Amino acid sequence: MGDKMSTIVTYLIIAFILMIIALVVLKLNKKDFNIEANKLITYLGGKDNIINAEANMSRFKVILKDVSLVDKDGIQKLGAKGIVEIDNQLKIIFGKDARTLKKYISQIV
In this structure, which of 6, 15, 55, 78 has its CB flanked by the most CB atoms within 10 Å? Predict the structure, then answer.
């Protein structure tokens, strides 16, 4: 009976440690959208450069005063899968994060 109990306790300790590791990994993989939004605003030339921002599905569309201030490499490092520039607007493909980024940017700008 004692061996059975110590085996159960050992398995419970292992399960508990695995749960803690899983939670740490999930926490590290979760994006901090507030930081991402601030970086995106910087890469777009600052909040004074942004006239309007919209998001639909996977695309984030932003109208800018001066497109030459944009750091496209920085935007791609944030996870953009593509950037299309038309006149004074950019259409940035962010995937599922587009709407969330738009929400955070709207709070800042």
Answer: 55
